[in-house]
Protein: 2',5'-phosphodiesterase 12
Amino acid sequence: MDRLVVRCVPAESKLSISFSLAGSYRHMLREQAEELGKALSRISKSAVKAQSKGKKSKKECKSEQTEVETVVRLYFNDEPVAESALNRDAWQDGAVLQVGDVKYKVERNPPTFTTAQLPASVLAGFPVCPKLEIEFGDLRFCLFKWYKESSPNAHAREEEDSWVEAGSDRVFTPSNSDIGLRLKLKCMPGNDSKLGLALDLVTSSAVEAGPGVCTFDARHFYTLKVTDESTTRVVTYNILADIYSQTELSRTVLYPYCAPYALELDYRQNLIKKELSGYNADIVCLQEVDKGVFGDSLAPALDAFGMDGVFKMKERQHEGLSTFYRRSKFRLLSRHDIMMSEALETDPIHSMLLEKLGSNPVLKAKVVQRSTTLQVSVLQSVSDPSKIVCVGNTHLYWHPKGANVRLIQMAVALKHLKKVVTEEHASTLIFCGDFNSTPSSGCFQLLSQCSIAEEHSDWASNGPEELLQMKLHSPFELISACGEPEYTNYVGGFNGCLDYIFIESQALQVEQVIPLPSHQEVTTYKALPSVSHPSDHIALVCDLKWN
Structure:
């Protein structure tokens, strides 16, 4: 019996009917509140056209029409469905549509892939993670079968037995023996009761050789398994947005030492996905995430490795922040993202800071023009619901002379985080990000020592015109979980520690800090990024244990 698929969603006014008629695929949209008889009449007319196609005379077409219009009927439990029934009620799962001598079994809302894509670039030794979005189903119940070509271009030559089975997991990692071969994925959508129609996806290019040893390979030996319930592994990483890596400035001034192909997005995404998946983290905070990268690459890949993620685009920018969490360990309770300049001007909790900033219009104008964003996600432990974690993720103003702006931004961030922690009854705070601040900075002192004096040199970082002197206090007692590395950013003209994971030591203790790549690894290709490292920053990774 042939297959007919009906998609009927209560919130929509129309339903769709999809089936193959006389070798031609038909997709009809009908009103849900329309009577069945009208839909059957439309199918009958389609059948007439299909059968009369190619006939030369109108007389022949009319005679064909008389024959075909006799039987087009819908049955359910072997009983005809009344033509006065509404479409939304008539097209039930398991019903049978008869068109002439052909019968179709109705599948109402079967699991269906709405998006199914393979990445453009495939490297040996790097995971291939399909982008899959499903309707009326769950990716946990889908079936996967991977194939590779029996020989180079066997698929294009349409050779018999051109595909050889290679794996049955959602993610496939090709080996060096697969270089030069295309890959195929047969994926069948499913839910807890049935399977849908399988799709075949073929990579657009053959598997290419990978870069060999990467800077993160040795780090993965410390993170081979997901941690137990008492431990939380946290990652923070500025992954270098594509819009910044592809400029002429990047190629000729910032990263002239980096091979051009290693700055390409597809290449770097292969490395980033392998690096992140290998950390087996529970919480991952990323900065400089392109919107397309989040939706097309990172979210599908990390979903396959058991993580859900949220994304916050920076206003007037093309990149933003994303926070991922392991769904077997955490569930997302709430989000409290802000653009710091907007919060400064509109949230009463910042009124004193705003008033003080008003005494220096030049600095105030500079601060309010920034689109710097703070992403705040409140996570609840699955195993112990009493443990609620507030996760802050940010990327502060970048300019070398902008320490005064960063101090204002940090003051806003800390005030907002305290508000969220209090209102959400969070057990603790984990504050991650690229703070663009070294350990000698006022920002680091504010976080680690709870205050900075009004005489701190950072207030004068951009000269007397922007000087604003005020004492700042932090409402948290924080420590840098990964200490003070020599550097987390290493480019041709600069190296220094800019990235941090701050925690409250009364709630969490550091169990393990994953060693950073050696200086030799970082400088093998002079600086970062490189063919073996996808960003100009280095990820910080640590294991935290509840007290």
Notes: The chain has 13 helices and 30 strands.
